Amino acid sequence: MMTVEQAEGGKATGRRRGGARRRALAALAGSLIAATAIAALGWFGGLRINLTPSEPIGLWRIVPLDRPVAVGDLVFICPPLGRITDFGRERGYFRWGLCPAGIAPLIKTVVALENARIEIGAEVVIDGIAVPHSRPSARDGVARPLDPWSGSLVPDGSIFLHSSFAGSYDSRYFGPVPGAGLLGLARPVLTFAP
After folding, report:
1. Which of 58, 92, 89, 48 is nearest to 185 (CA)?
2. What pLDDT does residue 159 have?
3. Rounded distance, CA 187 to CA 194, Å?
4. Do 154 and 99 contact (CB within 8 A), yes or no?
5. Which end is more exposed in the chain, N or C (fewer Cβ atoms within 10 Å of the end residue's Cβ)?
């Protein structure tokens, strides 16, 4: 048989558990709100997380361009809607993001500007000069066939993109892209190369 003291003790324990739960839920809700606020500030502050091996993994910043894009610039760019994004999404080359096609912006190096002559054979050749680490792969990372772009002049308003990572899906395969998708320069904040 339970005494009055035991019954009251049980009530007190129940009240303590209820209070602890409320405090834990409040702490969790506060943490979620803080994390959301930090993520929003980072997003609007131009911060992005790169999870692809084309460039070092980690936190990057989009820095607005205050000059014309130049060969050698490491940039964030949204690829155009259509065959490039459809193929990349179908194959799983692109991560989810806020570019118009629903994918994350790419981080690539600009290796050619409009009117440059591109030839793709055993490597990419731009205006007669071979691009280091540019040999196209016949197959992607899961052994699916991968055809290189045929090569030609880079059209007006377009840029040719490259990553020295052998498995990168870049202009070697999809050709030049419109410069209109350029978001800005890509600057590492906190990154590491796997």
Report:
1. 48
2. 98
3. 18
4. no
5. N
Q: How far is Cα 80 from Cα 179, in angstroms, rounded to an integer?
A: 10
Are the CB atoms for 129 and 96 separated by under 8 Å? no
The three-state (H, E, C) secondary structure of 147-194, written as one string = CCCCCEECCCCEEEEECCCCCCCCHHHHCCEEHHHEEEEEEEEEEECC
Place of tokens 């997380």: 49
Q: What is the pLDDT of residues 60-96, one digit of tens each?
A: 999 999 999 999 999 999 999 999 999 999 999 998 8
The predicted-structure confidence for 161-190, as pLDDT tens digits, reads as follows 999 888 899 999 999 999 999 999 999 999
Can you tell me the distance from the alpha carbon of 110 to that of 171, in angstroms, rounded to the nearest whole number? 10
